[in-house]
């Protein structure tokens, strides 16, 4: 950890921040404005349609070569009809689905499994809306989606993982792949746990079982799912397989909102109860805490045995907008301008946001003590950074950097054991190079 440094002329970095077993370092890169369209929502896939999922391996390889020149690689959907027999279905009863781009060369025997994000649903109205969208029905999913960032096939943008087998499991249950139940009155299938199990077993059957390296990842609700399922994922493989997990923007905190309430805790409590999540939460957590608490990563991460990397913005915009300052907590609208323009935040609002950042840093204190775990917590106002080329890769010209090391390099160094990565940025605004992306 000798790489870390502190900018002496920054008033926030000058004081010692000893909340974690790492040296605090300063963000010297910048946050990319192109991420603004996705910062406040769990939306990482385009609405472009395309050809069906019956493409051959040869066609996919040609598509991959063209993508290096023509733009993002578009990967066709595969609908897993066989999973229906196990009751593994989306909210509306349709089969689950995934997108797979096969590996090549040195990556033939390595796999990334990416769990799609996209929020949750906690009541009949929200779940009914979800059921009639791509978040609840495979019939309504895009036939092709772009693979970028950590899912990219570009050796320039994604040097460590570009040649791996890369698969994204679509999210259509509403409880971070952890629910188990059926609402007969409303026709809601809460089968996230079954979707997880059936899809992973299918991938094992088509080659993943012989992998020598695997990485489970996900963004937002998918990042939470990667945390909840990390040790389960490890259990599918022999000890000789290198298995690690990456959670991007999945560190949702049980924090008080601006009115003193617990908006996110109330929301999570409804999700856990409605979708029957409790039996599928990590037993090391439920043995000591209530089930709602065990849907919060801060109460789970210290009990995970599999190596895991937490990638998070300290000022996560989804949590700011929906958990810390939701409209219901501030009916006067006093936070509306601050939520959409960080430069418009007054001193008290900025102090509140910095306190949230400090809570996040404190929540990883124990986690950071493990040599096998990794951290990259930057001071950008962002949400999800691993699948966007402009925030993932320095080659794209915009990856946030801590001590001159961007996200892609940090994750690669951690996964391959080239260096320990325990990087936490200074408080905003640091040295002023971290621009607002909203």
Structure description:
This protein has 438 residues and is of the alpha/beta class. It is built from 14 helices and 14 strands. The strands form three sheets. A ten-stranded mixed beta sheet has the order 4-1-2-5-3-8-9-10-11-14. A two-stranded antiparallel sheet has the order 6-7. It has a two-stranded antiparallel sheet with strand order 12-13. The protein has a domain at 43-334: 3-Layer(aba) Sandwich (Rossmann fold), CATH 3.40.50. Keywords: Cell wall, Cell wall biogenesis/degradation, Hydrolase, Secreted, Signal. This is Pectin acetylesterase. It is found in: Secreted, Cell wall.
Helix proportion range: 25-40%
Strand-pairing-aware structural class? alpha/beta
Classify the beta-strand content into a percent band: 5-15%
The major pleated sheet works out as: 10 strands, mixed
Ranges with pLDDT <50 over ≥5 residues?
1-56, 63-69, 431-438
Give the overall pLDDT as a whole number.
85
Radius of gyration: 21 Å
Count of individual helical segments: 14
Strands, count: 14
Order of helices and strands: HHHEEEHEEEEHEHHEHHEHHHEHEEHE
CATH topology of the domain at 43-334: Rossmann fold
Q: For the record, give the distance between the C-alpha atoms at the N and C termini, rounded to a whole number.
A: 32 Å
Subcellular location: Secreted, Cell wall
EC number: 3.1.1.-
Main location: secreted
Signal peptide: 1-33
Chart the SSEs and their pairings:
Elements: H1 11-14, H2 36-39, H3 57-70, E1 73-79, E2 97-101, E3 110-115, H4 124-131, E4 144-147, E5 165-169, E6 181-183, E7 188-190, H5 192-205, E8 213-219, H6 221-228, H7 230-235, E9 242-248, H8 263-274, H9 283-286, E10 308-313, H10 317-324, H11 336-340, H12 347-363, E11 374-378, H13 389-392, E12 401-402, E13 405-406, H14 407-415, E14 422-424
Parallel strand pairs: 3-5, 3-8, 8-9, 9-10, 10-11, 11-14
Antiparallel strand pairs: 1-2, 1-4, 2-5, 6-7, 12-13
């Amino acid at each position: 950890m000798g790489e870390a440094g502190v900018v002496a002329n920054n008033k926030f970095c000058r004081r010692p921040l000893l909340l974690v077993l790492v040296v605090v370092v300063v963000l010297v890169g910048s946050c990319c404005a192109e991420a603004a369209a996705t910062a406040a929502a769990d939306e990482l896939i385009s609405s472009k349609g395309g050809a069906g999922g019956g493409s051959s391996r040869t066609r996919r390889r040609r598509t991959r070569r063209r993508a290096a020149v023509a733009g993002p690689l578009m990967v066709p959907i595969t609908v897993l009809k066989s999973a229906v027999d196990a009751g593994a279905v989306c909210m509306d009863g349709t089969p689950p689905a995934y997108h797979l781009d096969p590996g090549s060369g040195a990556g033939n025997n390595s796999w990334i499994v990416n769990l799609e994000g996209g929020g949750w649903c906690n009541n009949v109205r929200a779940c009914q809306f979800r059921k009639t969208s791509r978040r609840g029905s495979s019939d309504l999913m895009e036939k092709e989606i772009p693979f970028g960032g950590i899912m990219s096939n570009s050796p320039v943008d994604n040097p460590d993982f570009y040649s791996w087998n890369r698969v994204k499991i679509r999210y259509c249950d509403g409880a971070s792949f952890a629910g188990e139940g059926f609402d007969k009155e409303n026709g809601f299938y809460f089968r996230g746990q079954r979707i997880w199990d059936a899809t992973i077993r299918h991938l094992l059957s088509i080659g993943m079982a012989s992998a020598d390296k695997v990485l489970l990842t996900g963004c937002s609700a998918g990042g939470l799912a990667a945390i909840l399922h990390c040790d389960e994922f490890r259990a599918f493989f022999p000890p000789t397989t290198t298995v690690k997990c990456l959670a991007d923007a999945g560190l949702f905190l049980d924090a008080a909102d601006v009115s003193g309430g617990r908006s996110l805790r109330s929301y999570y409590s409804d999700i856990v109860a409605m979708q029957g999540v409790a039996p599928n939460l990590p037993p090391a957590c439920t043995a000591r805490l209530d089930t709602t608490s065990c849907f919060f990563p801060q109460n789970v991460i210290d009990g995970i045995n599999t190596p895991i990397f937490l990638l998070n913005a300290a000022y996560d915009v989804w949590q700011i907008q929906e958990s810390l300052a939701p409209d219901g907590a501030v009916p006067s609208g006093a936070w509306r301008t601050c939520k959409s323009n960080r430069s418009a935040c007054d001193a008290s609002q900025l102090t509140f946001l910095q306190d949230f950042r400090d809570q996040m840093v404190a929540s990883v204190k124990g986690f950071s003590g493990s040599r096998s775990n990794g951290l990259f917590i930057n001071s950008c106002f962002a949400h999800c950074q691993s699948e966007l080329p402009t925030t993932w890769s320095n080659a794209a010209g915009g990856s946030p950097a801590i001590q001159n090391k961007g996200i892609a390099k940090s994750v690669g160094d951690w996964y391959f054991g080239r260096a320990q990565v325990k990087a936490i940025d200074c408080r905003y605004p640091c040295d002023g190079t971290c621009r607002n992306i909203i």
